[in-house]
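User: I've been trying to design a sequence by hand for this structure and keep getting stuck. Would you show me what you'd pick, starting by listing the structure so we're on the same page?

Assistant: Good idea, let's start from the same input. This is the structure you sent:
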């Protein structure tokens, strides 16, 4: 029932012009991995135990990461600079294939002012001053560009790169696409609702990915989790 309600709400928002009307551009067999909150559609055809997964932004939910590990036995390299997320990961028993790094992704490497959520009960912060964070509540956080990450970890190819980074996806996309690494699938949770020009940001994001040969094959019911594959 909740899935039906989500779909109806999404259609209503599209009809009112409140969100960008995201549409798939290619038909690829795909499956949903992870729970309703933290999951994404992926194409599983080429995945195996040797696949390399990058998961930027894990918060307190690694259902997506664990689902891939359980299914394929592959390694998931996870990243998050958020203090609550780091503590949560450190205080739980994680699969040995889940390899966590306490830093985030940005256009360039360095230490940044990381904005924490307005609501102390929430987890996810952002380098972007958007509606869910408080510019007065910050911590110093390490960030790295994808070029530096893949050089340090020694990867030439990434099978899946997932980003759920609270509005920064629009900011970092160009640096991801220009990194010296082959990426088969890019999964993005978009946060256009955070910005007055969010619809335009999403349109530009999709057009940019298309220009690099990535086609949209999976869209969640809420039209926020988008899955692209390199053709």
């Amino acid at each position: 029932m909740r899935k039906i309600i989500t779909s109806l709400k999404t259609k209503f928002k599209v009809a009112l012009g409140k969100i960008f009307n995201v549409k798939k551009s290619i038909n690829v067999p795909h499956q949903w991995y992870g729970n309703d909150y933290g999951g994404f559609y992926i194409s599983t055809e080429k995945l195996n135990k040797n696949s390399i997964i990058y998961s930027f932004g894990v918060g307190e939910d690694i259902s997506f990461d664990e689902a891939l590990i359980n299914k394929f036995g592959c390694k998931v390299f996870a990243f998050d600079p958020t203090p609550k997320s780091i503590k949560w990961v450190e205080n739980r028993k994680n699969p040995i294939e889940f390899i966590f790094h306490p830093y985030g992704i940005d256009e360039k490497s360095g230490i940044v002012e990381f904005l924490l959520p307005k609501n102390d009960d929430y987890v996810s912060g952002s380098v972007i001053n958007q509606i869910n964070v408080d510019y007065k509540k910050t911590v110093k956080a390490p960030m790295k560009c994808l070029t530096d990450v893949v050089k340090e970890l020694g990867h030439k190819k990434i099978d899946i790169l997932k980003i759920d980074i609270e509005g920064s996806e629009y900011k970092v996309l160009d640096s991801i696409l220009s990194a010296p690494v082959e990426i088969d699938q890019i999964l993005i949770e978009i946060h256009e609702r955070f910005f007055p020009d969010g619809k335009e940001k999403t349109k530009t994001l999709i057009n940019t990915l298309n220009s690099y040969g990535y086609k949209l094959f999976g869209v969640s019911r809420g039209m926020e989790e988008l899955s692209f594959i390199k053709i």
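That's my pick for every position. To get oriented when you compare it with your attempt: The longest helix spans residues 2-15. The domain at 27-104+148-230 is CATH 3.40.50.150 (Rossmann fold).
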